[in-house]
Amino acid sequence: MIFSKSGLVAVSLAALVASGCSTSRFSSMDDQQPAPLQPAPAGQVTANQLPPPAAPGATDPSKFPTAPGNTQVASLPPDGSAPAGAADLTAASVAGVWNASVSGQSCKVATPQTKFGAGFRAGPLHCPAPIDGIKSWNVAGKQLTLYDENGGALARLYSSGGSKFDGQTSNGQAISLTR
To answer: What is the DSSP letter of 106?
Structure first.
């Protein structure tokens, strides 16, 4: 008996299809239904104002390391003017990567000289709020301002000499940048 190649392939395919349709190996799965889920407990939802977050040990100044002779972070004068001795700033003097400290929490902030909006692009890395929202920065005279995505000022800082800036966030938290 002589079979052609195409005939042999056709007979093989027909046998495979017929055996696949008649298998019973999946029939036991058709009868199984998953167990019904238990409903989530129902309760009453209330809304309350949360207190502002506090940094661990924020009430104990001894928990924060300081340089010899430096017992506190410089803050902005109440009228928003530059502190005595603050240096005039240029974009080149601010560009780079900074170690930021916000209310005792540390992170890094990149301040490249890439034009963005009315200033330059900024990139926070693992920063706490509100500094995690920095999108841009700019200098004007003695002041370094960090902005959010809408152009709102998140923080204002002044040079404290050398490679250090001190200031406050828009909600009054102490902030410093060092290299």
So the answer is: E
